[in-house]
Amino acid sequence: MYSMKLCTVALVSLVIGNISASNVHGSTSSTLRMRIEPQALTTSLAQTAKFALLVHGCSEDEHNLTITWDVEDVIEVSPSSITVTGCNDKNISVEVSASQQGRFIIRPIIISSAPFTDNGRLFVQLKVAKYRPLIIISMLIGWTYTVCWTIGDYFQAWTSYRRKSVVGLSFDFLYLNIVGNCCYATFNVVLFASEYIEEEYFRRHPFGLNPVVANDVGYAVHAVFGNLVLITQCYIYQSGGNVVSTAVKLLISGYVVMVSVFFTLTIQHQMHWLDFLYILSYVKLSTNLIKYIPQVLMNYQRKSTEGFAISNRLLDMAGGLLSLMQMVLNGWNYDDWQSIVGAPVKFGLGFVSIFFDIIFMVQHYVCYNNRKGEQKAS
C-alpha cells in the first residue's frame, strides 16, 4: 500500500513535468541556432576524439560566422578557427586531443554578423585518460557490478519459491527497500524524461550534463520490479506470522507524509521540481542506511539465516567492491580524485552496504552455520 502511494506520486510528477516541458519548449525560435554533438567525449593521451558543431536555422541574409576555441594550453583543437559564410546548414567535424590527463571544458568563441541564440549549452566535456585499455576495463567493471546488483533479488525469489516459504526473510527490510527504490526510480525517470526539469538542472550546473542515462532508468525500474516480486511472495507463501513492524509502518507513513507535503509545495510553485527530486533521493539515502538492520536483528533472534539467500548478499558485496574499485581506477586513470572526494555520499553508501554484507556473511558462515540446511531448501 505504501509503495503504491509513492509510485502514484512518481507518475503524477512525471506527467506534470512533461506538460510543463511542452509548454516551455513549444515556442522556441531563433534566427541562427548552433549545437554540439556529442557533449561528452572520452579519450586518452596521444589519441584524438571528434565532435560535430552544427550550424542551422539561419536567416536568408548573408552572414559571416567565425569560431575559435576557449581551451587550456594542454588541449589542441583542429581546426583551431572556423569561418562560415552564407546561409547553408553546416555540420563541422572537429578533432580534439590532449597532452595531459584530466577533465576539461571546451567552449567555442563565436563572432557572428547575424543574431544567434546561445542557450549556454555550447560546450564539450572532455575526459582524458592516461591509458586507453583502462577505459575498457572500467566499462567492463561497470557492467559486471550492474549485473551483480540486478540479478541478486532473483536468488532470493528462487529460494522462497523452492521452500514455498518466506520464513526468515524480514518484511521490514523488503518494504524499506521498495520505498527507497520507488523514490530512486522516480528520480531517474523524471530527470531523464522531462526536458523542463533537465533545464532546471542545467541552470544550476551550467557545464554539467544530465547525470541520468537510459541504463540508470532501466536499472532503477527493474529494482522496483524485483522488490515487487519478493513482496508478492510474502502474501503467497508461508510467512510464519512475519509482518511489517509497527515502527517501520510509522517510518514509512512519515516518508509518505513528507513526500506528499513537498509534492504539494512543488505543484503550488513553492519549490522547484528539481528540489522535489532531491527530496526523493534523500529518502533513498536514508532507507539505504537502515534497511538492513531489521534483517540482521531477525537473523540474530532466530539464530539462523535459513530462508535468507546469502547468495544475494554475496552478489551485492561483489557489486559494491567492484563499484568502489571502478571509482578508484577512474580517479587514477583520469587524475580526477575530486570525483571521489566530491561524492562522499556515494562512496560512503558503498561502504555501508559492504559492512552489512560482511555481517550477514559472519552470521551465515560463522555464527549460525546452516549451509547444509539452506542448500536442501534451495
Shape, principal axes of CA atoms: elongated
Report, as a whole number of angstroms, the end-to-end distance: 30 Å
What is the element string, with H for helices and E for strands?
Answer: HEEEEEEEEEHHHHHHHHHHH
How much of the polypeptide forms β-strand, as a percent range?
15-25%
Low-confidence stretches: 1-5, 14-30, 374-378
Distinct helical segment count: 12
Largest beta sheet: what is the strand line-up?
A: 2-9-8-4-6
> Structural class of the helix and strand makeup?
alpha+beta
Spatial extent as radius of gyration = 25 Å
**How many beta-strand elements?**
9
Mean pLDDT: 84
Percent helix, as a range, is: 55-70%
**What's the main sheet like?**
5 strands, mixed
Keywords: Lysosome, Membrane, Repeat, Signal, Symport, Transmembrane, Transmembrane helix, Transport
GO molecular function: L-cystine transmembrane transporter activity; symporter activity
Transmembrane segments: 131-152, 173-197, 248-267, 347-368
Signal peptide: 1-21
